[in-house]
Automatic annotation (TrEMBL):
Originating gene: mqo
Alphabetical GO biological process terms: tricarboxylic acid cycle
Full protein name: Probable malate:quinone oxidoreductase
The protein's annotated pathway: Carbohydrate metabolism; tricarboxylic acid cycle; oxaloacetate from (S)-malate (quinone route): step 1/1
UniProt cross-references to HAMAP family, sorted A to Z: MQO
Lineage per the UniProt record: Bacteria, Bacillati, Actinomycetota, Actinomycetes, Micrococcales
Organism: Microcella alkalica
Length: 490
């Protein structure tokens, strides 16, 4: 007889780890199992070398604050993303306080976040962005400067070698972070297993079938020996990164119809030269090229992985039909169905700027890429930098009643009407907003349990049911408490 369990989490990344931890705190007796097709967790998008890893809070990412036709700055998305990140911080703070996560430095380090631009038009834009954000409770403490000496004090590598006549400007937020989502994922999974969940590595899910009683038969193949196996789960979460789309298609739920995916790969330049690394402690974001997806906004990042500090610059976008770094060359083509081909074609015809951008990135030489780095770090020596292949991202394509299909830069929760299966599509801001995204999923899939769960959810996340910035005094208290617990700047 096939074994019956409560929760099957497909994919061993930050999303499954976060959802599993939330559910285990809410229902300690539930049988939760994680199925990962690779030899360890966090080897794909949650790996620190495969993602941006900044702790996206919209402190420095300019794509979240577009300039409107009337010249004003729209801060709506920046506030939304920061609110989401504060939820993640509260959740991590709760786990640290309860002893469910160790010393915060095992996965999180205080790292200032900066925006940096050059050229008169961009300087004017950044000045207006600063004015629009500086009085908001979530962006308190943001500094702005066009002074060369001040910018050099914040980030020494940005100035030497730059033309003195070039207009430049920067914003600086001391309260930024660098998050190692690979380490965080492993710590969360370790905690899950220690408290009764089970982890099954090298298990590839091959089928999802709805049973008459509402549960799901999850068919798998053990990659070692190709042994088939299956379980029946009352709830299934598909947190398999780029592979979530084809798995949800296998489930046959009507809610996945019309969804497609456009895969984008990437590369970094990395430096481990201690002399270079010691001169830069910040995450510095610039403005994206025309047509560039959000994940390709150029940035010069301090990155702390396993206690060692490096610098990354990029990412440089590319194209591969794979949906995962370890995926198949047939992933894109296998995902095309009769119900998503029209939206995908419409998106292809309507996003010429993106196609042009990707072609330019694919044909760029190493010297072209070093010149892009020198826009940020004028005296960069190519001998200090080497190429790294980043992770795969699959941008969401969805059906649109008016346009036929749209390319969505963000994440999308897809859940069945009865809440027995759900999955996550998309990329940025991704890992940094895992906690609020999983809370949204819980509310959609377990509406009948929310009343009983609310007291515990409020203990884990003090702002649950509202927004951190609704009350400046509450915001100051919550931000201060989480910063103190996580040992980072306010």
């Amino acid at each position: 007889m096939t074994e019956r369990i409560d929760v099957a989490l497909i994919g061993g990344g930050i999303m499954s780890a976060t959802l599993g931890t939330l559910l285990q705190q809410l229902e300690p007796e539930w049988d939760i199992r994680i199925y990962e097709r690779l030899s360890d967790v966090a080897l794909e998008s949650s790996n620190p070398w495969n993602n941006a890893g900044t702790g996206h809070a919209a402190l420095c990412e300019l794509n979240y604050t577009p300039e409107k036709p009337d010249g004003t700055i729209d801060i709506t998305n920046a506030v939304k993303v920061n609110e989401q990140f504060q939820v993640s911080r509260q959740f991590w703070s709760y786990l640290v306080g309860e002893g469910l996560l160790p010393e915060p430095k095992a996965f999180l380090n205080a790292t200032p976040h900066m925006s940096f631009v050059w050229g008169e038009a961009n300087v004017e834009y950044l000045r207006k962005r600063y004015e629009a954000l500086k009085d908001h409770p979530l962006f308190a403490g943001m500094e702005y400067s066009e002074d060369v000496a001040q910018i050099r004090a914040w980030a020494p590598l940005l100035i030497p070698g730059r033309a003195k006549s070039q207009p430049i400007a920067a914003t600086y937020m001391a309260a930024g972070t660098d998050v190692d989502f690979g380490a965080l994922t492993r710590l969360l999974v370790d905690g899950l297993v220690a408290n009764g969940a089970s982890l099954h590595l090298e298990h590839r899910v091959t089928g999802l079938k709805k049973l008459k009683d509402g549960a799901w038969r999850v068919s798998m193949r053990h990659e070692v020996g190709s042994t088939p196996t299956e379980v029946e789960a009352r709830f299934v979460f598909v947190g398999a990164g780029g592979h979530a789309l084809p798995l949800l298609q296998k489930s046959g739920i009507p809610e996945i119809r019309g969804f497609g995916g456009f895969p984008i790969s990437g590369e970094w330049l990395r430096s481990d030269n201690p002399e270079v690394v010691a001169k830069h402690l910040a995450k510095v974001y610039g403005k994206a090229s025309v047509g560039a997806p959000p994940m390709s906004v150029p940035h010069l990042d301090t990155r702390v992985v396993d206690g060692e500090t490096s610098l990354l610059f990029g990412p440089y976008a590319g194209f591969s039909p794979k949906f995962l770094k370890t995926g198949s060359w047939l992933d894109l083509f296998a995902s095309i169905t009769w119900h998503n081909i029209v939206p995908m074609l419409q998106v292809g015809l309507r996003n010429f700027d993106l196609v042009k951008y990707l072609v330019g990135e694919l044909t760029a030489s190493r010297e072209d890429r070093l010149n892009a780095l020198r826009d940020f770090y004028p005296r960069a020596d190519g001998r200090d930098w080497y190429k790294m292949v980043a992770g795969q991202r699959v941008q969401v394509i969805k059906r649109d009643p008016e346009k036929g299909g749209i390319l969505q830069f963000g994440t999308e929760v897809v859940a069945s009407a009865d809440g027995t299966i759900a999955g996550l599509l998309g990329a940025s801001p991704g890992a940094s907003t895992a906690a609020p995204i999983m809370l949204e999923l819980i509310a959609r899939c377990f509406p009948d349990r929310m009343a009983d769960w609310t007291p515990q959810l409020s203990r884990m996340i003090p702002s649950f049911g509202g927004r951190v910035s609704d009350d400046p005094e509450v915001a100051d208290r919550i931000l201060g408490e989480t910063a103190a617990t996580l040992a980072i700047a306010r």
